[in-house]
């Protein structure tokens, strides 16, 4: 198979042996981020489709996710960095009940590489922990990720809780993850939250939104 297809296959098949060698070869042809966006994410999409249609079982999805994570970790040092730093701080978390973190961690990498301090709380984070961390770290914004449909409900509850605690005006909120869409966030959730809430389709939109928040 040609290199790009081989790499995509590795994600779908969860095949780690020889991954690094293939990635190193790909790096001689293309920038690291392009490999992630065009090749690896395309593999994860296929995994989602196979799982969704019952053609792939959960343990294999997990294997794919692990290969994806290993690939991103290997590519990370090769990504372009803006060493300026100190552009602002965001507390980032996957919401309560949700374990999906590949997308959130990509957002962390993109923001960190572009001068932001990211406090990454990890997965299954209750809103109280997110608010406490944002307060403790004097965050400029809060980012929540979630991939399950039920996480969209959790996000709405989180925004309501932030209203109730009087912190909506303190923290603009960035939301992302496959279960969300722009209209749900910009119409429904924006009507709920007393502060600013925005939808990021991908990590790069997350970066653009942070840039505009910090302007
Ligand atoms: Co799960 N899973 N999963 N899964 N999984 C989905 C989400 C699903 C759509 C698959 C399917 O059915 N087709 C489905 C959800 C269905 C629904 O809710 N209606 C699903 C399910 C059902 C489940 C379980 C319930 C399965 C089970 O146990 N029976 C279970 C849930 C457990 C839980 O959370 N409580 C489960 C478990 C898992 C694994 C552990 C095996 C694994 C996750 C491993 C991990 O993350 N460490 C996994 C995986 C890998 C997936 C799919 C296949 C791939 C997700 C992924 O990593 N994509 C996924 C299918 C899909 O998404 N279509 C699926 C790549 C990643 C880069 O994309 O996270 O969307 P994404 O991030 C994007 C953007 O969304 C955005 O930027 C990224 C790209 O630049 N973004 C942000 C994300 N967060 C952002 C935050 C921002 C800004 C942008 O600012 C704050």
Automatic annotation (TrEMBL):
Boundaries of every B12-binding domain copy: 87-215
Domain B12-binding N-terminal residues, every copy: 1-87
Domain of life: Bacteria
Binding-site residues for methylcob(III)alamin, renumbered to this chain: 97-101, 145, 203
Similarity remark: Belongs to the vitamin-B12 dependent methionine synthase family.
Entry's free-text remark on domains: Modular enzyme with four functionally distinct domains. The isolated Hcy-binding domain catalyzes methyl transfer from free methylcobalamin to homocysteine. The Hcy-binding domain in association with the pterin-binding domain catalyzes the methylation of cob(I)alamin by methyltetrahydrofolate and the methylation of homocysteine. The B12-binding domain binds the cofactor. The AdoMet activation domain binds S-adenosyl-L-methionine. Under aerobic conditions cob(I)alamin can be converted to inactive cob(II)alamin.
Functional note: Catalyzes the transfer of a methyl group from methyl-cobalamin to homocysteine, yielding enzyme-bound cob(I)alamin and methionine. Subsequently, remethylates the cofactor using methyltetrahydrofolate.
Official protein name in the record: Methionine synthase
Annotated source species: Jiangella alba
Lineage: Bacteria, Bacillati, Actinomycetota, Actinomycetes, Jiangellales
């Amino acid at each position: 198979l040609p290199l790009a297809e081989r790499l995509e296959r590795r994600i779908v098949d969860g095949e780690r042996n020889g991954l690094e060698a293939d990635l190193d070869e790909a790096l001689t042809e293309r920038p690291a981020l392009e490999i992630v966006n065009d090749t690896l994410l395309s593999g994860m999409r296929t995994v989602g489709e196979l799982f969704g249609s019952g053609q792939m079982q959960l343990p294999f999805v997990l294997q794919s996710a692990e290969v994806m994570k290993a690939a991103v970790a290997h590519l990370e040092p090769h990504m372009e960095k803006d060493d300026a730093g100190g552009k602002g701080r965001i507390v980032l978390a996957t919401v309560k009940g949700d374990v999906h973190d590949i997308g959130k961690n990509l957002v962390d990498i993109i923001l960190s590489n572009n001068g932001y301090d990211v406090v990454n709380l990890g997965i299954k984070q209750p809103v109280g922990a997110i608010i406490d961390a944002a307060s403790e770290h004097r965050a400029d914004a809060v980012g929540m990720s979630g991939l399950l449909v039920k996480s969209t409900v959790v996000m709405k509850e989180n925004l309501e809780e932030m209203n109730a605690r009087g912190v909506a005006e303190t923290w603009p909120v960035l939301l992302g993850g496959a279960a969300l869409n722009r209209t749900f966030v910009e119409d429904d959730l924006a009507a709920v939250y007393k502060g600013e809430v925005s939808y990021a389709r991908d990590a790069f939109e997350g970066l653009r939104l942070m840039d505009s928040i910090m302007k």
